[in-house]
Write a structure and sequence with these properties.
The complex is a heterodimer.
Chain A: H1 2-27, E1 31-37, E2 42-43, E3 53-55, H2 71-77, H3 81-86, E4 101-109, E5 117-123, E6 136-147, H4 163-167, E7 174-183, E8 186-188, H5 191-198, E9 211-217, E10 223-229
Antiparallel strand pairs in A: 1-9, 2-3, 3-8, 4-5, 4-6, 6-7, 9-10
Chain B: H1 3-23, H2 30-50, H3 57-88, H4 94-118, H5 123-146, H6 154-170, H7 176-189, H8 192-195, H9 199-202, H10 207-222, H11 230-250, H12 261-285, H13 289-311, H14 317-344
Classes of the chains: A alpha+beta, B mainly alpha.
């Protein structure tokens, strides 16, 4: 019986560690940000095998390079000097793609018809990206790739689909740093929140029928959906 | 095969051979024969009372069927639980959601204990313990999704420890496998720390997997437990080691070492050839059948990959497969000579 109790204690302890840290974070003051949401942002729930969640859609190549991805920023993230020196140039034959590095990213929602997020800043530590009410700060994985389509020359907030970028195709790829994944990629929605989001008219052309979601950011990196409101 | 089963099988084989000797005219004196028979009868009775020992070939076949049924039952019950959670998730409040993921592993641990006490064969306990481990993995994964927690390597450790705890306490093989996988995966992911990587990216660095494989192979030497677990440790450890070496020999990008990818691949091809030979030799010398089998399978795969490297691009496909066939015959020839030499000793 003793060993069954030890096994049970292991289960209880693992759950307690997670739940206590969540409870502490949610009890402390949090920064609230308000974002536009539409039914297309809802993933999972209903008959799906995934729990309902609000997808953080990231726009590709949203700004030339987010702040914090310069040489000093890449160094702070742990990229080797040889990679940093190669950024903006075509990779040579000895180039070995570096592994992605963990960091923190600031996401800001675009005001275009798709309502996607763009990465505006990256940092190695969370303290370097203080939370504010106009953006979300989440974990991310940052990589350096050879890309044939360079980022646009400046912010393109008004455009929805960047058809022009599809046409630009330089003959040789250049190395660019980019955020490859944000963690979490989607935020869990409770029963009421997912119902509110599902009640918005579906919009296959983009994200025009919108509601508002209030996202809370805790003091030690937690993030959760506080409320979803239909218009 | 458990030690009890091994002993029972040896007794049955001895009786069969004794009957054959008697038919050929070689007989033991009646007193010795009856003393041996009485001793064996008592021993078989003890073994049968201690657990699930097959005393006739039909029972052995039934045992195999029961093992397959246990595995299928484990998969089916785990799928039922996971699908039940996902299909009812959206309709529940937070409290019920938490209860739905935290209670099942606890309940299944209690049921494993009860089953282990009342059903000595261990099949039901094995099934329940494995579903408990899977339910715990679902529990931690769901908790992460529910509270937007970043995924963590520590979940692998917790799940692995539960698997090992249940396997060792109740002598169950099936939960041992997620146990080895969980703890092994956690150790493998630790390679991400010195490299400054996200823990999941650590699983794309192969050298720590080689270390985990070696450690797993040595576990039976320093952890006392059910004797039947040793081949599983050695088998999974050997498989991890070979898989790692084969991957590094083919894709040097996955090495933790800086330097030319081509150089790294050549080094690991050489290391792989040496390690596979050593593994087979070790298996033969120590009479560890699983190590020898895995080493041989790895060597065949290694040879096949090298043949692809050397010939695929510049010989017609029919000739490539002819070369592979010729190599297979050569391997058979070498193994046969080895077999004859061992039989002659």
């Amino acid at each position: 019986m003793k060993w069954a109790l030890i096994a049970g204690a292991l289960v209880v302890t693992a759950n307690a560690i997670a739940l206590v840290s969540v409870a502490r974070e949610r009890a402390a003051p949090a920064t609230l940000s308000s974002i536009d949401v539409c039914s297309g942002n809802l993933v999972g729930g209903g008959r799906s095998e995934e729990p309902p969640a609000l997808l953080l859609r990231i726009a590709p190549d949203s700004v030339p390079v987010p702040t914090g991805l310069d040489a000093a920023g890449l160094r702070a993230l742990g990229f080797p000097e040889v990679v940093i020196a190669g950024v903006g140039r075509p990779p040579d034959s000895t180039f070995r793609r570096p592994r992605e590095r963990p960091g923190w990213v600031r996401l800001r929602q675009r005001s275009d018809s798709l309502g996607r997020f763009e990465v505006v800043a990256v940092a190695a530590r969370r303290e370097l990206l203080p939370a504010d009410s106009t953006s979300l700060v989440v974990r991310g994985r940052i990589g350096v790739f050879a890309r044939y389509s360079p980022p646009p020359a400046g912010p393109t907030a008004a455009e929805g689909h960047d058809h022009a970028a599809m046409g630009r195709r330089p003959s040789k790829g250049l190395l660019y740093p980019a955020v490859v994944e944000v963690i979490p990629a989607a935020l869990y929605l409770d029963r009421g929140q997912s119902s509110a989001l599902r009640s918005l008219p579906s919009d296959s052309a983009g994200c025009r029928s919108r509601g508002r979601a209030v996202i809370a950011s805790g003091a030690i990196g937690g993030i959760w959906v506080e409320a979803v409101k239909a218009p | 095969m458990t030690p009890d089963q091994r002993r029972a099988s040896a007794i049955l084989a001895f009786r069969e051979e004794l009957a054959r000797l008697e038919a050929e005219g070689v007989v033991l004196d009646a007193a010795t024969k009856s003393r041996i028979q009485a001793h064996h009868d008592a021993l078989l009775e003890t073994l049968a009372s201690r657990g699930d020992v097959d005393l006739v070939p039909g029972a052995a076949r039934l045992s195999m069927g029961m093992r397959i049924a246990t595995l299928l039952g484990t998969i089916a019950l785990s799928a039922a639980y996971a699908l039940f959670v996902s299909s009812h998730w959206g309709r529940l409040g937070l409290g019920l959601q938490l209860a739905l993921v935290i209670a099942p592993p606890l309940l299944l641990i209690a049921l494993t204990h009860v089953a282990a006490q009342h059903e000595t064969s261990g099949y039901v306990a094995s099934l329940l313990a494995t579903v408990a481990v899977i339910a715990f993995a679902v529990n931690l994964g769901t908790l992460g999704a529910l509270f937007n927690l970043p995924d963590s390597r520590n979940a692998l450790l917790a799940v692995g420890l539960l698997g090992l705890l249940l396997a060792y306490r109740y002598g169950l093989t099936l939960p041992l496998l997620p146990g080895i996988g969980g703890v092994g995966g956690w150790l493998w992911s630790l390679g991400a720390i010195p490299l400054g990587l996200w823990w999941r990216d650590g699983l794309l660095v192969i050298e720590p997997l080689l270390g985990v494989g070696i450690v797993a192979m040595t576990v039976p030497a320093w952890v006392r437990g059910t004797a039947g677990f040793a081949p599983w440790w050695r088998g999974t450890g050997g498989a991890a080691l070979i898989l790692g070496l084969l991957i590094l020999g083919s894709n040097g990008q996955l090495s933790m070492f800086a330097g030319g990818v081509h150089t790294i691949e050549i080094v690991y091809k050489i290391v792989g050839a040496v390690a596979l030979s050593a593994l087979i030799a070790w298996g033969i010398r120590r009479d560890q059948r699983i190590v020898m089998q895995i080493g041989t399978a790895g060597a065949v795969l290694y040879l096949f990959l090298r043949l692809v490297d050397w010939f695929w691009d510049w010989v017609p496909q029919w000739l490539f497969f002819l070369i592979v066939g010729a190599f297979a015959l050569a391997v058979l020839f070498v193994l046969r000579r080895l077999h004859r030499r061992m039989a002659a000793r």
